[in-house]
């Protein structure tokens, strides 16, 4: 059972993350999913769309060096925003210190947490729902502790059980930088 879950879920997500990392470094790569699951294929399409929009907008991905963390952060946030426009999933991006970097449109509506006000705040201060904030912090700690492995939890949001997934984005030195 473990091998099946690894082959169908964890491995394809790791491949997508690796391909996205390569694309963000400036290489011309089309992100693909080995497993033919509709959700993964939708994610891949959204990532490729976001990357193409960055290139069209003159994102200059190739001239971002590995040491230019401020530019990498801006590029990452552009990709996350592009992904958010192409999905109905609720997106939250936080850093290692649990400070909010981005709140997606669907999550803004679900939790009445506005991106422009939440950015830079600790998730527990930015979010009025202590259950969501606590679960986000717990999942971030588990992602960091596992060196970037995906984590899942189920949480009741507005009376609906929702599955939360957390994925770590590693920096070039292997540390998890964003969740």
Care to describe what's here?
This protein is of the alpha+beta class and 179 residues long. The chain is built from seven helices and six strands. Helix 1 (2-24) packs parallel to helix 2 (38-56) and helix 2 (38-56) crosses helix 3.
List the keywords:
6 strands; alpha+beta; two-stranded antiparallel sheet; globular; 7 helices
| Biggest sheet details | 2 strands, antiparallel
Q: Quick one: overall form?
A: globular
How are strands sequenced across the largest beta sheet?
1-2
Low-confidence stretches: 60-66
Number of helices: 7
Write a compact overview of the structure shown:
The chain is built from seven helices and six strands. The chain is α+β, with helices and mostly antiparallel strands. A two-stranded antiparallel sheet has the order 1-2. Strands 3-4 form a two-stranded antiparallel sheet.
Task: Summarize the topology.
Blueprint: H1 2-24, H2 38-56, H3 69-85, E1 92-94, E2 100-103, H4 105-111, H5 115-118, H6 123-126, H7 130-145, E3 151-157, E4 160-166, E5 169-170, E6 176-178
Antiparallel strand pairs: 1-2, 3-4, 5-6
Helix pairs in contact: 1-2, 2-3
